[in-house]
Amino acid sequence: MPVMASDDFSVHTDDCDRFDDGMPISDLPDEVGSIDDLDCECWSDFDSLADIE
Predict the structure, then answer these.
(1) pLDDT above 70 covers what percent of the chain?
(2) Would you call 52 exposed, middle or buried from its count of C-beta atoms within 10 A (0-12, 13-18, 19+)?
(3) Taking a C-beta distance cutoff of 8 angstroms, is the pair 31, 9 a contact?
(4) Per-residue exposure over 8-30, b if at least 16 CB sit within 10 Å of its own CB, e if not
(5) pLDDT at position 5
(6) Torsion of CA 10, 13, 17, 21, to 10 degrees
(7) Model pTM?
(8) CA distance to 30, 31, 50, per residue, from 18 (Å)
(9) Which residues are registered as beta bridge partners of 47?
(10) Residue 38's CB: how many other CB atoms inside 10 A?
(11) What is the pLDDT of residues 25-34, one digit of tens each?
């Protein structure tokens, strides 16, 4: 499940250790159109957005 960090609104996986506080979200933000739009390395195990959902 994706988690949105409360400090900078970046999106991470729920097991990522790069955010201190966050809120689980059910869907990725509309701005995310491809896996390349997710900046954190925690998404490197996914090949595409279809793998996340």
Answers:
(1) 98
(2) middle
(3) no
(4) eebbbbeebeebeebeeeeebee
(5) 95
(6) 50
(7) 0.84
(8) 22, 21, 23
(9) none
(10) 21
(11) 999 999 999 9
